[in-house]
């Protein structure tokens, strides 16, 4: 099942300093006073009907600034079409009325938040989110979180200690989601050496405490040939199958990360050009030739690349390699993985996530896709349909990262919720 990100309004009431939509917002001088003039609900609803087989998520910008009436209309429409709805919000405007709307619309709520107090200093105005998260959980809503790991919450060991403490508190609430590295935001992101150190530390911490956060679950799933977030799923920048975006005038576009200054209409066909280039280009020239993790990684997101050129691999490669190595060793230690058996082979076209087709990394994964699965079965060694699709369809979830995680499926060791996962980082 694909993922439709409904983005009627791309402005935001917070304007976080590292947001990947900040360039577009600045270019278009998006003004909060003109929110309603930027979208046409009739056209949006008509298009949503075309995608009724997709999971649908209300996204932004910040969607709650559209007001309760319009938010409710959109979420109700989603519920009518798909049986449920989803939203990714910075949480600033959440109040009792919105919580009632979420309950009525069977909404999975993804909250973008980097932790309490100074941990969120790049996200002005979000210091009381904890209370809101607790309230939503208490009222039975499915809540997940997208955290951006930056200098604000991991710049030194004291901040990292606070962050870990907060992850444990969230675990008590059965809330988890994505720990996205801050990227493409010089001045806010961690310097490479520290980034690797922090993520290895967090990987170990999550393993020790059985915390199921991305990207760790995606790395493990990638090594096992299972569903994972878009970043590791071979993304065509002109047809981002993991993220279909519906904008305010009813047009269909790609993942907003690909639309820096202008919204460009989606190309009708998906190509495998980047994968082919990366597989054949030596690593010293920006490719991934001879990397044993290629089938689990695919060079990362094409919008976070060396020299900002989508044909190159991601500049986060050293981080990903370190994490692949960490989990490879761990899986090997328990006898669950052999790189020779699974990842030495060629990547097949459409090898990942034919269903997921979402996985933007903004819609947190649900269900099976995010379970770190250490239960070894014979058939797990080589996915059944690996000849054709690279992964077994039973593992195919939507993993763009924009579908808020279900708390019991990702954190509570249950696999009864099956949602998608896009993974945004706003
Ligand atoms: S780990 Fe690096 S070299 Fe290997 S596939 Fe990923 S981006 Fe390419
Ligand atoms: S975030 Fe995901 S869908 Fe968007 S460009 Fe990157 S890999 Fe593609």
Task: Tell me the layout of helices and strands.
Elements: E1 3-7, H1 22-28, H2 41-50, E2 55-58, H3 68-82, E3 85-89, H4 96-104, E4 107-112, H5 129-138, E5 142-149, H6 151-154, H7 157-172, E6 177-181, H8 192-209, H9 216-223, E7 244-247, E8 252-253, H10 273-280, H11 294-297, H12 317-333, H13 339-342, E9 360-362, E10 400-401, H14 407-410
Helix pairs in contact: 2-3, 3-4, 8-12, 9-12
This protein binds iron/sulfur cluster (2 copies).
One iron/sulfur cluster binds at residues 230-231, 235, 240, 242-243, 255, 257-258, 301-303, 360-361, 400.
How many strands in all? 10
Sheet with the most strands, sense and barrel status: 8 strands, mixed
> Helix coverage percent of residues?
25-40%
Rounded average pLDDT:
82
Tally of separate helices? 14
N- to C-terminal separation? Answer: 23 Å
CATH class equals Alpha Beta
The hetero molecules present are: iron/sulfur cluster
Judged by helices, strands and strand pairing, the structural class is: alpha/beta
Global Rg: 20 Å
Helix and strand succession? EHHEHEHEHEHHEHHEEHHHHEEH
Structure overview:
This protein has 426 residues and is an alpha/beta fold. It has a single domain (1-271, 356-426), classed as TIM Barrel, CATH 3.20.20.70. Helices cover 31% and strands 10% of the residues. It has an eight-stranded mixed sheet with strand order 6-5-4-3-2-1-7-8. The protein has a two-stranded parallel sheet with strand order 9-10. Strand 7 (244-247) and strand 8 (252-253) form a beta hairpin. Helix 2 (41-50) packs parallel to helix 3 (68-82), helix 3 (68-82) runs parallel beside helix 4 and helix 9 (216-223) packs across helix 12 (317-333). The longest helix has 18 residues, at 192-209. The structure holds iron/sulfur cluster (SF4) (2 copies). One iron/sulfur cluster is lined by residues 230-231, 235, 240, 242-243, 255, 257-258, 301-303, 360-361, 400. One iron/sulfur cluster (SF4) binds at residues 230-231, 235, 240, 242-243, 255, 257-258, 301-303, 360-361, 400.
